[in-house]
């Protein structure tokens, strides 16, 4: 598991507990982070929504420097699957 994925799991796990649905962040060239009601973990399981971004964009989302909606609108964040679940995930990051 890459250091980027490890850091993402550590940052997202406390926020993700009780998340309603399943989501996966694919960090290009690094791996994937899976989120469900039990928290976040490194996994590439099937999910309600898959979000794909570069390492730089993903780190910006985590730090709050990148707005999820703007990243999506400018093509830096790709969303595949349930848009309502993606919106819940955006609220979790904010």
UniProtKB/TrEMBL annotation:
InterPro entries: SCP2_sterol-bd_dom (IPR003033), SCP2_sterol-bd_dom_sf (IPR036527). It comes from the Bacteria. SUPFAM superfamilies: SCP-like (SSF55718). GO terms for cellular component: cytosol. Residues 11-93 form the SCP2 domain. This is SCP2 sterol-binding domain-containing protein.
